[in-house]
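Exercise: predict the structure of this protein bound to adenosine-5'-diphosphate.
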Amino acid sequence: SIREVLIMLENKWSVKKLSIDLELQDFLYLGSKEMMEEVWNNLIGNAIKFSDSGGQLKIKSLKNKNTVIVIISDNGIGMTKETQEKIYDKFFQADTSHSQDGAGLGLSIVKRIIAVHQGKIHIDSELNKGTTFTIDLPMLPEFLYHFKIGNKYYSLQSSSDSPQPLLLSLTVHTSTHRPDQ
Ligand code: ADP
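Solution:
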């Protein structure tokens, strides 16, 4: 989940004394938790890497109609339009002096993973102002969270605490009442 990735990256953002504005709504999507964690790790990792000390990160997830929107925003170094056009290319790094570590592979992988999940990724960035990545992921419709077949109720359950769980297990309740009621 995004929360877990933030915990994993804590040493990086705490050293830079970044403040984090976190606003996460729970959602379920169909896909790979491992792959999506790679996405969050890359985007949040970059937001930290390209922020100055004392900067601010904003991380939000909000449910749209059939999709969930995740917004990862920093007020760091930002990018020119030319740079923005190349960031998804393999091995591209805007900083030719390579003063920042990394291989320039992260965002090309991010783009692939989002495509595999039939989502979209969008960038807004301004040099010396900051960068915002917006991800739009198809969400599992909420009416599927609980459903009934015959006289059995089924609940889709997430593999971990909210948010961004991958659905992993299906529990069967043989009662004739919805388990959440
Ligand atoms: P890496 O981070 O390993 O260099 P990425 O593919 O993740 O490779 O990113 C490619 C390039 O895009 C980075 O080198 C950097 O120039 C630019 N970039 C990515 N994210 C940001 C960001 N949040 N702010 C400014 N520049 C960024």
